């Protein structure tokens, strides 16, 4: 069983590394993170200008609100959350996701993933092993997608 999971992991990362466009692998990445970090939901968003209503005679950029703070538009999610998250917009005054981006919408690269672990009797060892797996996955994600 563990050997099958290891082969599945290797196959996933090989596909990502050899892909001509790693952004095409983002839906698979969301499912991979959900499975391997044992989380309920994974959403991948992009910082974008806020959209505004337009009139029929407006030009092709009238829908972009350059004066408003950027929003996060969710583009990908794990399979069980696709229907409720893809296309949703998170304004800067909601949630904590905007704190992962630096001034002016540029990624500062210093964001840390906050994941809570429950400790049990073997808590320390299990927690350390879990943290190692999370670190390894996050390093691979940053190396591949955050440049």
Descriptors for this entry?
two-stranded antiparallel ribbon, 5 strands, 147 residues, 4 helices, 13% strand, alpha+beta, three-stranded antiparallel beta sheet, single chain
Large-scale geometry:
elongated
Largest sheet properties: 3 strands, antiparallel
Radius of gyration: 18 Å
Mean pLDDT: 76
What is the end-to-end distance? 34 Å
Strand order of the largest sheet: 1-4-5
Helix content: 25-40%
Uncertain stretches: 103-121
Broad structural category: alpha+beta
How many DSSP helices?
4
Sheet-strand content, in percent, reads: 5-15%
SSE pattern: HHEEEEHEH
**How many strand segments?**
5
Domains (count):
2
Structure characterization notes:
This protein has 147 residues and is an alpha+beta fold. The protein has helices at 2-18, 26-37, 82-85, 123-145; strands spanning 43-48, 50-51, 64-65, 71-77, 89-90. A 3-stranded antiparallel beta sheet has the order 1-4-5. A two-stranded antiparallel sheet has the order 2-3. α2 packs antiparallel against α4 (123-145). The longest helix has 23 residues, at 123-145. It is elongated.
């Amino acid at each position: 069983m563990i050997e099958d999971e290891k082969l599945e992991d290797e196959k996933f990362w090989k596909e990502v590394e050899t892909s001509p466009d790693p952004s095409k692998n983002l839906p698979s990445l969301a499912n991979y993170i959900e499975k391997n970090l044992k989380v309920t939901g994974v959403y991948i968003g992009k910082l974008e200008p806020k959209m505004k209503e337009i009139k029929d005679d407006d030009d092709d950029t009238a829908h972009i609100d350059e004066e408003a703070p950027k929003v996060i538009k969710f583009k990908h999610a794990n399979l069980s959350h696709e229907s409720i998250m893809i296309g949703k917009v998170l304004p800067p005054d909601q949630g904590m996701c905007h704190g992962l981006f630096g001034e002016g919408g540029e990624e500062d690269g210093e964001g840390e993933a906050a994941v809570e672990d429950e400790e049990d009797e073997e808590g320390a060892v299990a927690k350390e092993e879990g943290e190692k797996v999370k670190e390894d996955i996050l390093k691979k994600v940053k190396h591949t997608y955050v440049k």
